[in-house]
Amino acid sequence: MIKAAVFDMDGLMIDSEPFWQQAQLEIFPKVGVELTLQDTIDTTGIRIDQIVEIYYRKSPWNDLSCEEVCDLILARVIELVKEHKPMMPGLFHAMETCQQQGLKIALASSSPIVLIQAALEALELKDVFEAVLSAEGLPYGKPHPEVYLNAANALDVSPLDCVALEDSFTGLLAAKAAQMKTIVIPEHSQREQPRFVIADRQLTSLEQITPELLQSL
């Protein structure tokens, strides 16, 4: 029986993926890395320091450290989140439905904690979650399952009794590796990809979360 729901953040709770894409397209050319919008889409769900390291290994730069490039990208994303407050449709509905079912609620994100806190403040969700976890300081981000395992531990619930809500395939892999039940809500252009079949349920919106769906997991 499901006892807890663990929410991803970027792309699931807030429509921040376009901001990550915009920030990368603005910052990477400053260190001589040319990339396309598709390049940024292909790395959705991967921790930003890992993305920076990937590009640095392919095309090393001299002017800034990898950490400084990460900081510039992150600062731009935070600026855009605070400005636009991009809450995904059905977020409050999904959380309320989980709470009405008596589920504990946590957040488990690959994003740095400073962005998580900025987003929760912007959306007035600071006191909603019983646990807020970032993969920022972990050896590996998603698709490694550690951030999800940490979330289950923080809630004092077995991962087997948790459902993870995700939007990206990278995050879905992390949740499945943690042995959680999974609900995936891919971005519109990704919905027809057959790889999402590994999720327990695939939806088009958080508005489709119902007591019956949660009870069926």
UniProtKB/TrEMBL annotation:
InterPro entries: Beta-PGM-like, HAD-like_sf, HAD-SF_hydro_IA, HAD_sf, PGP-like_dom2. Its cofactor is Mg(2+). Pfam families: Hydrolase (PF00702). SUPFAM superfamilies: HAD-like. It comes from the Bacteria. Gene3D superfamilies: HAD superfamily/HAD-like, Putative phosphatase, domain 2. Keywords: Carbohydrate metabolism, Hydrolase, Magnesium, Metal-binding. The keyword Protease does not apply. One of its GO terms (molecular function) is hydrolase activity. Belongs to the HAD-like hydrolase superfamily. CbbY/CbbZ/Gph/YieH family. This is Hexitol phosphatase HxpB. It comes from Vibrio casei.
